[in-house]
Design a protein that fits this description.
single chain; hypothetical protein PF0899 fold; three-stranded antiparallel β-sheet; 2 helices; binds zinc ion
Length: about 130
Protein backbone atom coordinates (compact mmCIF):
# COMPACT_ATOMS: atom_id res chain seq x y z
CA UNK A 1 0.00 0.00 0.00
CA UNK A 2 2.81 2.37 0.96
CA UNK A 3 4.74 1.48 -2.15
CA UNK A 4 1.71 1.91 -4.38
CA UNK A 5 1.05 5.38 -3.00
CA UNK A 6 4.65 6.44 -3.41
CA UNK A 7 4.63 5.13 -6.97
CA UNK A 8 1.57 7.21 -7.66
CA UNK A 9 3.15 10.39 -6.28
CA UNK A 10 6.20 9.84 -8.48
CA UNK A 11 3.89 9.43 -11.46
CA UNK A 12 2.16 12.75 -10.78
CA UNK A 13 5.48 14.50 -10.21
CA UNK A 14 6.87 13.39 -13.55
CA UNK A 15 3.62 14.39 -15.26
CA UNK A 16 3.81 17.84 -13.69
CA UNK A 17 7.43 18.13 -14.81
CA UNK A 18 6.40 17.25 -18.35
CA UNK A 19 3.61 19.81 -18.16
CA UNK A 20 5.86 22.59 -16.82
CA UNK A 21 8.44 21.82 -19.48
CA UNK A 22 5.82 22.19 -22.15
CA UNK A 23 4.36 25.35 -20.60
CA UNK A 24 7.80 26.92 -20.39
CA UNK A 25 8.43 26.11 -24.04
CA UNK A 26 5.09 27.51 -25.21
CA UNK A 27 5.47 30.70 -23.17
CA UNK A 28 9.06 31.20 -24.38
CA UNK A 29 7.97 30.74 -28.00
CA UNK A 30 5.24 33.30 -27.42
CA UNK A 31 7.61 35.98 -26.16
CA UNK A 32 7.90 35.04 -22.50
CA UNK A 33 6.18 36.34 -19.36
CA UNK A 34 5.23 35.29 -15.85
CA UNK A 35 2.89 32.32 -15.85
CA UNK A 36 -0.18 33.13 -13.76
CA UNK A 37 -2.56 30.32 -14.49
CA UNK A 38 -2.57 26.95 -16.19
CA UNK A 39 -5.83 25.29 -17.15
CA UNK A 40 -6.00 21.59 -17.76
CA UNK A 41 -8.48 18.86 -18.45
CA UNK A 42 -7.92 15.61 -16.64
CA UNK A 43 -9.85 12.56 -17.77
CA UNK A 44 -11.37 10.30 -15.13
CA UNK A 45 -9.62 7.41 -16.84
CA UNK A 46 -6.25 9.11 -17.36
CA UNK A 47 -4.81 7.59 -14.20
CA UNK A 48 -4.04 11.04 -12.83
CA UNK A 49 -5.13 11.65 -9.26
CA UNK A 50 -6.18 15.34 -9.18
CA UNK A 51 -5.22 15.90 -5.53
CA UNK A 52 -1.74 14.42 -6.00
CA UNK A 53 -1.34 16.31 -9.24
CA UNK A 54 -2.25 19.58 -7.56
CA UNK A 55 0.12 19.10 -4.67
CA UNK A 56 2.98 18.17 -7.00
CA UNK A 57 2.10 21.19 -9.10
CA UNK A 58 2.08 23.57 -6.13
CA UNK A 59 5.51 22.35 -5.12
CA UNK A 60 7.12 22.38 -8.56
CA UNK A 61 5.45 25.44 -10.06
CA UNK A 62 6.85 27.57 -7.24
CA UNK A 63 10.35 26.54 -8.20
CA UNK A 64 9.78 26.89 -11.92
CA UNK A 65 7.49 29.89 -12.22
CA UNK A 66 6.09 31.98 -9.41
CA UNK A 67 4.22 31.58 -6.14
CA UNK A 68 1.11 33.08 -7.69
CA UNK A 69 0.89 30.49 -10.44
CA UNK A 70 -2.49 28.76 -10.21
CA UNK A 71 -3.64 25.45 -11.56
CA UNK A 72 -7.22 24.98 -12.72
CA UNK A 73 -8.24 21.38 -13.24
CA UNK A 74 -11.37 20.34 -15.02
CA UNK A 75 -12.29 16.71 -14.52
CA UNK A 76 -13.62 15.12 -17.69
CA UNK A 77 -16.06 12.20 -17.33
CA UNK A 78 -15.38 8.99 -19.23
CA UNK A 79 -17.44 8.45 -22.38
CA UNK A 80 -17.48 5.43 -24.61
CA UNK A 81 -19.05 4.38 -27.86
CA UNK A 82 -20.35 0.94 -28.67
CA UNK A 83 -18.72 -0.48 -31.78
CA UNK A 84 -21.68 -2.74 -32.44
CA UNK A 85 -24.68 -0.41 -32.21
CA UNK A 86 -22.98 2.99 -32.06
CA UNK A 87 -24.52 3.97 -28.72
CA UNK A 88 -22.63 6.77 -26.92
CA UNK A 89 -22.68 6.63 -23.14
CA UNK A 90 -21.03 7.89 -20.00
CA UNK A 91 -19.03 5.22 -18.21
CA UNK A 92 -19.96 4.92 -14.55
CA UNK A 93 -17.75 3.10 -12.08
CA UNK A 94 -15.61 1.56 -14.81
CA UNK A 95 -18.62 -0.30 -16.20
CA UNK A 96 -17.62 -0.72 -19.82
CA UNK A 97 -20.80 -2.29 -21.05
CA UNK A 98 -23.07 -0.84 -23.69
CA UNK A 99 -26.41 0.13 -22.05
CA UNK A 100 -28.27 -0.30 -25.35
CA UNK A 101 -27.26 -3.72 -26.61
CA UNK A 102 -25.29 -4.95 -23.60
CA UNK A 103 -22.90 -6.95 -25.71
CA UNK A 104 -20.87 -4.81 -28.06
CA UNK A 105 -17.20 -4.04 -27.60
CA UNK A 106 -16.85 -0.40 -26.56
CA UNK A 107 -14.28 2.22 -27.37
CA UNK A 108 -13.33 5.02 -24.99
CA UNK A 109 -13.82 8.32 -26.81
CA UNK A 110 -13.34 10.74 -23.94
CA UNK A 111 -11.85 10.80 -20.47
CA UNK A 112 -8.53 9.02 -20.94
CA UNK A 113 -6.46 12.09 -21.65
CA UNK A 114 -4.56 14.78 -19.82
CA UNK A 115 -4.87 17.94 -21.85
CA UNK A 116 -3.32 21.36 -21.51
CA UNK A 117 -6.09 23.85 -22.27
CA UNK A 118 -4.63 27.30 -21.75
CA UNK A 119 -1.85 29.26 -20.13
CA UNK A 120 -2.33 32.75 -18.77
CA UNK A 121 0.76 34.95 -18.55
CA UNK A 122 1.13 38.30 -16.76
CA UNK A 123 0.39 40.39 -19.84
CA UNK A 124 -3.12 38.87 -19.84
CA UNK A 125 -2.29 36.95 -22.96
CA UNK A 126 -3.79 33.52 -23.11
CA UNK A 127 -1.91 30.88 -25.01
CA UNK A 128 -3.87 27.90 -26.19
CA UNK A 129 -2.11 24.69 -25.39
CA UNK A 130 -1.77 21.29 -26.91
CA UNK A 131 -2.38 17.71 -25.91
CA UNK A 132 0.19 16.35 -23.48
ZN1 LIG B 1 -24.25 -1.43 -28.13
Amino acid sequence: MRDALWGSIMHERSLVQTLLNQVQQIVADDGGGVVKEIQMQVGDLSGVEPLLFESAFTELAREWFSKECRLVLEIVPVKAECRLCGQCFEVQKFEFLCPACGTGPVEVIQGDQVKLMSITVDSENTVTGAKL
